Amino acid sequence: MELWPCLAAALLLLLLLVQLSRAAEFYAKVALYCALCFAMSAVASLVCLLRHGGRTVENMSIISWFVRSFKYFYGLRFKVRDQHRLQEARPCVIVSNHQSILDMMGLMEVLPERCVQIAKRELLFLGPVGLIMYLGGVFFINRQRSSTAMTVMADLGERMVRENLKVWIYPEGTRNDNGDLLPFKKGAFYLAVQAQVPIVPVVYSSFSSFYNTKKKLFTSGTPTCVHPGCRPCLTLWSRSPRPLVVPISGWHPWRGHMVTMWRMSDSGWSPGSGLHDLMAVTLPSGPVRWVVLGPFFR
After folding, report:
1. Going by DSSP bridges, is the β-strand pair 232-233/278-280 parallel, antiparallel, or unpaired?
2. By CB neighbour count within 10 A (0-12 exposed, 13-18 middle, 19+ buried), where does 13 fall?
3. Which residue from 103, 80, 30, 65 is spatially nearest to 228, judged by alpha carbons?
4. d(CA 130, CA 136)
5. DSSP symbol at 294
6. Mean pLDDT in the chain?
7. Where do the H-state alpha helices sit in the chain?
8. SS3 of residue 151 by DSSP
9. Nearest to 92, CA basis, from 256, 246, 234
10. Is the model more confident about 245 or about 95?
């Protein structure tokens, strides 16, 4: 019984610190977010097992429903543009910028049907969080062993076409909130070339106005999510009049336009059909070494 007064005093002290210190408020909200993730994962895992009995991409709709409720705890409202572009019933590789731990909320806000993610293998061992990711069909990559990662990607490329899956990848490879995009890893583009599917960019506006780890800022906000159009063009003889052929290791032109969209996403700009064709071409003479990029803006 003597423990309760201590707990009550600690809670009151925490509430006082949150009111007086922005840093304390920041850490308290981050701690609540982590607690919500673990609690949601445990409950959602049980629901997924009862509903579908095991690992399947169909569980992502259940997970999405739980995660979308997080925004109400933090006063976040997502402004989504051209979401219908993600709802087409065809496989594709979705690439998105990766800013913070809050990205999961943005992802689940617009997650299309039959969409899985690629995540680092370490997340599989995060207790209920790893379990719910596994049940949702997430593909885990061991980034320390490139041969294993390539095997997983090869298997995923085959399954994308066979099972009509969309794959969501963060090509930067890590969280980044420095106001720009990091150089892209090659995995997402190799996957698109191998499966011969289009790449669809999804760009989230900067979170820095309401979530900033350096300034210890965590308030309410309205991030914008933009879905530019991207049509499948898988051969060199495309309707695109001036294709640009570049090595698959150099994604600077495509990345540059994604940076432009990211910087403009707070200004009320809408891409419409401006972002045009992204084409992947398999050369008949050997392994895939090139991609063909159509004009991005008409």
Report:
1. parallel
2. exposed
3. 80
4. 10
5. -
6. 74
7. 3-20, 22-52, 60-67, 71-74, 103-110, 128-135, 146-163, 187-195, 252-264
8. helix
9. 234
10. 95
